[in-house]
């Protein structure tokens, strides 16, 4: 009897704990999703109605005018093409370059392994600054050049450390057996290391892709005078800064005519629509690399 009572009490405690976990996770989900749903709702809501406020997770007056207004701006298509191509090219080359450096640093027979690893880590804490960086880009002839989007971010110290830690967890006997079979270093890297590093490579690929997709400051510094080299984020930033079609104060709308009210687009609506345009491509890509992302961040982090 006592044993049955203790089991019943234990089961009741477990169920209570499970309910607590469920409620906690539901609250976390609501807190996490609400900001995005609110942005989405405002972006699809009429600007005049948005100024009134009170929009939460569902648009009160649905419209696509906010997105239509964004795509009226010049150079947006050119910026989208440039951002897409730089993201694809920069991600592929960045992942391969970081993996090659990480493989070299992981080799036990590399004499300068510790020295170069220390130098690479130091670059994560210290940099030359904005002005020396600009002077370097200028002296390399990369101003008003598409390659300024690719070359400066080709190798990232943080990504190298992550990949090197992952490679250190791969048994070195695989490389030794491949050497016995006559494989050279490049074949070992391409045929053995790269396939085994898919999780961590997908992880840093997501990092690099997000960096390229969200980047606009390099366009502002180096290519702002060339409209053919503009990027989507830079164009959206200009739209956000130049939007002065109305005030978020409802009283400011009282003096508007009927025609002005029809074309009224609030800065808040533009801001939310821009946020959605920026986020959606990353949301589309992330589910395909999620399993590799989680595995890549955990494997290699703990060594036996």
From TrEMBL:
Q: What is the lineage of its organism?
A: Bacteria, Bacillati, Bacillota, Bacilli, Bacillales
Which GO biological process annotations does it have?
A: transmembrane transport
State the family named in the UniProt similarity comment for this chain: Belongs to the binding-protein-dependent transport system permease family.
Looking at the keywords, is Transport present? Answer: yes
Top-level lineage group: Bacteria
Coarsely, its chief localization is membrane
Protein's membrane topology: Multi-pass membrane protein
Gene Ontology CC annotation, any one: plasma membrane
Organism of origin is Metabacillus litoralis
TM helices/strands, residue ranges: 21-44, 84-103, 115-134, 146-167, 188-213, 270-289
What is the name of this protein?
Carbohydrate ABC transporter permease
Alphabetical UniProt keywords:
Cell membrane, Membrane, Transmembrane, Transmembrane helix, Transport
Query: Which CDD domains does the record associate with it?
Result: TM_PBP2 (cd06261)
Instruction: Tell me the Pfam families matching this sequence.
Output: BPD_transp_1
**Keyword presence, Kinase:** no
Q: Where is the ABC transmembrane type-1 domain?
A: 80-289
């Amino acid at each position: 009897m006592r044993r049955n009572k203790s089991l019943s009490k234990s089961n009741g405690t477990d169920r209570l704990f499970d309910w607590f976990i469920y409620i906690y996770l539901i609250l976390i989900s609501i807190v996490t999703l609400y900001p995005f749903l609110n942005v989405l709702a405002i972006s699809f809501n009429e600007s005049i109605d948005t100024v009134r406020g009170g929009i939460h997770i569902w648009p009160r007056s649905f419209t696509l005018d906010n997105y239509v207004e964004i795509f009226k701006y010049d150079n947006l298509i050119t910026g989208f093409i440039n951002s897409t191509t730089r993201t694809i090219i920069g991600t592929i080359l960045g992942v391969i370059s970081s993996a090659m450096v990480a493989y070299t640093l992981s080799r036990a027979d590399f004499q300068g392994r510790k020295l170069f690893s220390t130098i690479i880590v130091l670059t994560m804490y210290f940099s030359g600054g904005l002005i020396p960086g600009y002077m370097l880009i200028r002296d390399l002839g990369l101003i008003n050049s598409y390659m300024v989007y690719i070359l400066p971010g080709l190798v990232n110290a943080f990504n190298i450390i992550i990949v090197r830690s992952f490679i250190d967890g791969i048994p070195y006997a695989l490389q030794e057996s491949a050497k016995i079979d006559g494989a050279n270093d490049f074949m070992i890297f391409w045929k053995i290391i790269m396939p085994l590093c898919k999780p961590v490579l997908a992880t840093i690929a997501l990092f690099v892709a997000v960096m390229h997709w969200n980047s606009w400051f390099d366009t502002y510094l180096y290519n702002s005078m060339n409209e053919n080299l503009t990027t989507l984020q830079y164009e959206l930033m200009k739209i956000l800064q130049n939007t002065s079609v109305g005030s978020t104060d409802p009283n400011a709308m009282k003096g508007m005519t009927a025609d002005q009210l029809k074309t009224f687009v609030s800065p808040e609506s533009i801001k939310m629509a821009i946020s959605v345009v920026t986020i959606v491509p990353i949301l589309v890509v992330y589910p395909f690399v999620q399993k590799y992302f989680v595995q890549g961040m955990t494997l290699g982090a703990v060594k036996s």
